[in-house]
Amino acid sequence: MKFTAAQIAGILNGTVEGDESVEVSQLAKIEEGNKGSLTFLANPKYTHYIYATQASITIVNNDFVATDKLSTTLIRVENAYKAFSQLLEYYNQVKMNKTGIENPVFISETAKYGENLYLGAFSYIGENVKIGDNVKIYPNVYIGDNVTVGNNSILFTGAKIYSETVIGESCVINSNVVLGADGFGFTPNEKGEYHKVPQTGNVILEDNVDVGPGTTIDRATLGSTLIKKGVKLDNQIQIAHNVTIGENTVIAAQTGVAGSTKIGKNCIIGGQVGIAGHIIIGDNVKIQAQSGIGRNLKDNETLQGSPAFGYGDFNKSYVYFKNLPKIMERFNTVEKKLDHE
């Protein structure tokens, strides 16, 4: 796809300074820009690159003042970074604007779907599935019985959606995500043998939820595993049965949340965090990467460590911990002197 400077300025409500008819067909970093590419300048540290870049078009802030000759056409906007992000979103919408049903696919006779569906080859749609308008389902996606998929949602290649799962509107389910597999429920008998506890609940994703590649969200034993609206989950995260994650909480990669834990809204959880089961985490909590959480947390806490404790206390303690050999050496020296006295 090719776009002219005039077309891009129209999308961004910007002003062209240079050749309005110049065309671009790719995006590039400003230091790697070449003819036919579009880039942007937002960070002042990269200003010197604009005088050498070969990019055909560069998006800049309105207050940018050139101090040397430019070979690139400028598009001036209020905020270059936000404008470039807006353009990326627009580009993705155009690129992924697929419709129609490819072959071969399987669609149950009892399934219902709305307008402008895209269904990629080798996908499976089970009994009583309900799919909204403008949904895009890429090749090799499995959707089990009684699943609901809301308007404008996207399911990428290889996603597996087990029965009874509910996906809200404008959700993004990336490749190899598994929604609704059985929770990890087993009970031992008198011989120590483990028997499976039936998992009869489901998974519910509210609107505007993003789930990264390889992430798994288990169905509830009873009731629902609930991911509330606006939640963003990174890659390779494990959410166990009966967990609830509050609105607009974000969780980074390789985090595991054990069963029946409740996480509040607007939390920020770093990568490789381990969260024990049956605890309650309040709103606006921040948990640093690789922390271990084994207790209830109040609103607005910030923690680090395993087991985690207050972020400020952790940093103070770490100063002593990293110097522990020297401290012990001094301690032993003093102890020896005291023994001789």
Automatic annotation (TrEMBL):
Q: Which GO terms describe its molecular function?
A: N-acyltransferase activity; UDP-3-O-[(3R)-3-hydroxyacyl]-glucosamine N-acyltransferase activity
InterPro entries in UniProt? Hexapep, LpxD, Trimer_LpxA-like_sf, UDP_GlcNAc_AcTrfase_non-rep
Q: What class of enzyme is it?
A: transferase
Catalyzed reaction equations: a UDP-3-O-[(3R)-3-hydroxyacyl]-alpha-D-glucosamine + a (3R)-hydroxyacyl-[ACP] = a UDP-2-N,3-O-bis[(3R)-3-hydroxyacyl]-alpha-D-glucosamine + holo-[ACP] + H(+)
Pfam families according to UniProt: Hexapep (PF00132), LpxD (PF04613)
Give any Gene Ontology cellular component: membrane
In short, the EC number is 2.3.1.191
Q: Which domain of life is it from?
A: Bacteria
Q: Does this UniProt record's set of keywords contain Acyltransferase? A: yes
- What pathway is it annotated to? Bacterial outer membrane biogenesis; LPS lipid A biosynthesis
State the UniProt keywords alphabetically.
Answer: Acyltransferase, Lipid A biosynthesis, Lipid biosynthesis, Lipid metabolism, Repeat, Transferase
Give the UDP-3-O-[3-hydroxymyristoyl] glucosamine N-acyltransferase non-repeat region domain ranges: 22-89
Q: Name one GO biological process term.
A: lipid A biosynthetic process
Under SUPFAM superfamilies, the record lists: Trimeric LpxA-like enzymes
Give the active-site positions: H241 (proton acceptor)
* Key word Repeat present: yes
Q: How does it assemble?
A: Homotrimer.
According to its UniProt entry, the function of this protein is described as:
Catalyzes the N-acylation of UDP-3-O-acylglucosamine using 3-hydroxyacyl-ACP as the acyl donor. Is involved in the biosynthesis of lipid A, a phosphorylated glycolipid that anchors the lipopolysaccharide to the outer membrane of the cell.
Q: Which family does it belong to?
A: Belongs to the transferase hexapeptide repeat family. LpxD subfamily.
What is the protein named?
A: UDP-3-O-acylglucosamine N-acyltransferase
- Species name for this entry? Aequorivita sublithincola (strain DSM 14238 / LMG 21431 / ACAM 643 / 9-3)
